[in-house]
Specification:
The complex is a heterodimer. Chain A is mainly β. Chain A has strands at 3-6, 11-14, 19-21, 23-26, 32-38, 44-50, 56-59, 62-65, 75-77, 86-93, 103-105, 109-114. Chain A is globular. Chain B has no helices and 11 strands. The chains are: A mainly beta, B mainly beta.
């Protein structure tokens, strides 16, 4: 079945540091890939997405590129802020058939950014 | 625009009790789903619905019941609560059941403790 693996956390950075959170996936078809963010006490919000190979999703300074050859979708940001402290989830969704757009999530990575 | 509304936000139950977690969305979304979030395991799909009157099981359906009598509401029932069901529960919805290009909208969650 489908699966998503994220890098072990938690991740602690100083403000303005470079961020990478690794994500690799296993899927039978051609999934869409997502990064969701969860701020303390809130639900998940879509951060960015990519629907086909070599697509780059970007939002709020974050970006991730859909790499079919390495089955990866790593999240990057050039300069993190304290307000980026949250839990980040990588997820995939198969299209069509009986998948009905169900999301398969990674285990989540806790990011803490210090001033 | 309320989005996805979950009630209650917090609940403590005793083993063997039953209860219903409520979820309502006002976006006329066809697809709704329930996930549980456990530490180190990401979110796992419990049940989902592709429209009124249609439901199906996800990855971890045992001990839970759902129904979808209207487009707006998708309640999750715990029939006989067990400590293993202590978790944070999230309801999500999206415009089309084939969610590969449609982001899912999440509620703020219900934190449930079973003693």
């Amino acid at each position: 079945g489908d699966s998503v693996t994220q890098m072990e956390g938690p991740v602690t950075l100083s403000e303005e540091a470079f961020l990478t959170i690794n994500c690799t996936y296993t899927a039978t078809g051609y999934p869409s890939l997502f990064w969701y963010v969860q701020y303390p006490g809130e639900g998940l919000q879509l951060l960015l997405k990519a629907t086909k190979a070599d697509d780059k999703g970007s939002n709020k300074g974050f970006e991730a590129t859909y790499r079919k050859e390495t089955t990866s979708f790593h999240l990057e940001k050039g300069s993190v802020q304290v307000s980026d402290s949250a839990v980040y989830f990588c997820a995939l969704s198969e299209s069509g058939g009986t998948s009905y757009g169900k999301l398969t999530f990674g285990q989540g990575t806790i990011l803490t950014v210090h001033p | 625009n309320a989005g996805v509304t979950q009630t209650p936000k917090f609940q403590v139950l005793k083993t063997g009790q039953s209860m219903t977690l409520q979820c309502a969305q006002d976006m006329n979304h066809e697809y709704m789903s329930w996930y549980r979030q456990d530490p180190g395991m990401g979110l796992r799909l419990i049940h989902y619905s592709v429209g009124a009157g249609i439901t199906d099981q996800g990855e971890v359906p045992n001990g839970y019941n759902v129904s979808r009598s209207t487009t707006e509401d998708f309640p999750l029932r715990l029939l006989s609560a067990a400590p293993s069901q202590t978790s944070v529960y999230f309801c999500a919805s999206s415009y089309r059941f084939d969610g590969s290009n449609q982001p899912q909208h999440f509620g703020d969650g219900t934190r449930l403790s079973i003693l």
